[in-house]
Amino acid sequence: MTEFPACPLTYKLWVPETTFSGKREEILRTGRYLIPLLGIAGLLAAFALVSGDARAEELAKFTVKDGASIPQSLTGQPGDPENGRTVAIHRQKGNCLACHAMPVPEQPFHGGVGPDLAGVGSRYNAGELRLRVVNSKYVNPDTIMPAFYKADGFHRVLKGFEGKPMLSAHEVEDIVAYLMTLKE
Q1: d(C-alpha 8, C-alpha 31), whole Å
Q2: Which of 47, 70, 89, 99 is deepest in the core (most CB within 10 A)?
């Protein structure tokens, strides 16, 4: 079993002797090069289970309208777009950059798995974006995008993270406010 310091999960990992030109020991020691080994879906699943600051808050109740929108704010207040940008690009919180290209030139390594978020505020309203951040499986059951405001239904979650969402209701609202500023 190999435990990687950057991720509090324990993996049973077999790394071929010839993997990545002799980088086998570095892979086992640091977890570097996990994307090619685990695949993006495996890495996202691990991220979905353990990332972000875990919170013991009770989830806000929300209503999904027509399977496409959560029209009401989770907090009853508008979000802070500046904090939303910070959370969205934070590699251990929202980490939107792992899958999406974003208009954030100071950050390297934007993802290409999800749609580009440039102009997303012109394509969707706040309720539609809120639903996608809360749990995009309402819109697309086959998506690999993790549910950022869900606390149950996960498998193999570390005890310290059980029953806790990846983001707080305030962080969800902040991200929605930020995404709404991304107009074409």
Answers
A1: 11
A2: 70
What is the per-residue pLDDT for 159?
85
> For 75-164, where are the E strands, in sequence order?
none
pLDDT single digits (tens) 128-141: 999 999 999 999 99
**Count of other CB atoms within 10 angstroms of residue 31:** 19
All structural domains of the chain with their residue ranges: 2-50, 81-180
pLDDT for 161 equals: 80
Please say whether the beta carbons of 67 and 137 come within 8 A. no
> Angle at Cα 100 formed by Cα 94 and Cα 102, nearest 5°?
90
Query: Residues 120, 127, 81, 132: is their CA dihedral positive or negative?
Result: negative
Helices (H), 31-168: 34-50, 81-89, 120-123, 126-135
Per-residue pLDDT, 19: 45
Between CA 10 and CA 13 the distance in angstroms is 9
State the fold for domain 81-180: Cytochrome Bc1 Complex; Chain D, domain 2 (1.10.760)
What pLDDT does 23 receive?
56
- At residue 162, φ and ψ (nearest 5 deg) are -60, 135
- For position 31, what pLDDT does the model report? 52
Return the C-alpha torsion angle 79, 128, 125, 80, nearest 10: 10
